Amino acid sequence: MEARYDRLSLQPNIIRGRTSSTSQPPNNNNRSHDVSSYILIIGGVGGVGSIATQLAKNLVNQPAFSSSSSISSSSSPHARINVIATASRTESVEWCKKMGADYVINHHKDLKSQIKELVDIDYVDYILCLNDTNGHFESMKQLVAPQGKICSIVEIKAPVDLGGILQQKSAAFVWELMFTRSLFQTPDMIEQHQLLDTVAELIDSN
Description:
- This protein has helices at residues 2-7, 47-58, 90-99, 111-119, 133-143, 165-169, 180-184, 190-204, and strands spanning 14-15, 18-19, 37-42, 81-86, 103-105, 124-129, 144-152, 172-175.
- Helices cover 35% and strands 18% of the residues.
- The protein is built from eight helices and eight strands, in the order αβββαβαβαβαβαβαα.
C-alpha cells in the first residue's frame, strides 16, 4: 500500500507528463488514444507482487488512499491501470494473470523489447521493482516514462547511476521500507494505520 499510494502516487488517469483528459502524449510514445496508465511490476508472481497486482487493478474502482495528497481515481470510465507483471514459468504466468495482470513478460529476457512487442509502447508510467534492483536498473531507466516513477523494495548490492537518462527524463527513484515511519517517528506515522484500515476494507469487500 505504501509503495502504491505514498511512494508511486499511483493514479489511473495520469500518463507521465500529462493528464489523460487534457492533452495528447508524444507520438513517439505510441499512446495518442490512450487514457490509461501502465505499471510494470518486476517480480509479479511472489507474495508481494501478487498483492501489488490486485491493489493496482482495484484502483480502477477504489480511490487511492492518501490523506496528505488527496489522490483519487479518475472519474473517467475508461481510465484504468494496465498491469504488466514479470514471471518466467508457465504456471507463474498463469498465476499473475489470475491475480489480475493484463500482460506478463519474462524477466530473464529484455524487458523493453517485450513490452514494445506486446503493447506497442516505449515507456511505462510506473515501475515497482520487487526483485534484483541492480540487475534490472538499466532496463528500468530506459523503460520509465519522462516524469515517471520507479520504486524498489530490494536493497542494492552495488552503486547505481541516477544520472544520464533518468536526469533527462526528470524521473524519480524512490525506496519503500515499511518501517521508515516508525523508525524515524515521522509526524505522519498515523498514515500506516490508515493504510492498514484501507487494506482491511478491501479484504472485507473481497
